[in-house]
Design goal:
Layout: H1 5-33, H2 37-45, H3 51-84, H4 90-110, H5 122-147
């Protein structure tokens, strides 16, 4: 599959998605060390929370986002390998992984918590959508290759 221009381009898009996944995984930690948008978002939604409860909620989100990021990285590497070795099932599985990734990213972006606000601040929600753009490009290129 990588012998075609579309196969190589799809792998390039997948590496871009891998990089964006790493960025999306790091951004919450950078936020914690600098602006603390996540903590401010939690405090705004739950003004009665003590600083300890805000920290606990923030750590829960950091663990959750880290696990999602790690799973995403594993999926990117696995799919890249499948494309390189020309597995027949690659397009279908890549499409399924894209649908799963988009669903999780949209959930993280749009889900409302008990405060009535989104669970994650918009900044983190939108950063989590970025790898999906690369995934959409990669899947499009994989399917385009099959039609060529």
């Amino acid at each position: 599959m990588t012998k075609t221009r579309h196969g190589r381009s799809a792998i390039g898009a997948m590496y871009a998605g891998l990089g964006l996944t790493v960025v999306a995984m790091i951004v919450p930690y950078v936020d914690r060390a600098t602006g603390n948008v996540l903590a401010g978002h939690i405090r705004a939604g739950y003004p009665a929370y003590t600083p300890q409860r805000v920290d606990a909620a923030m750590m829960t989100y950091l663990v959750y986002l880290s696990v999602l990021g790690a799973l995403g990285i594993v999926c990117w590497f696995w799919t890249i390998r499948a494309v390189r070795t020309s597995k027949r099932w690659t397009r279908g599985v890549a499409t399924l992984l894209l649908a799963l990734g988009v669903s999780i990213a949209l959930f993280n972006l749009l889900v409302r918590d008990t405060s009535g606000d989104t669970g994650l601040p918009p900044l983190l929600g939108w950063v989590g959508m970025l790898p999906c753009l690369a995934g959409l490009l990669a899947v499009t290129l994989l399917w385009k290759r099959s039609q060529a």
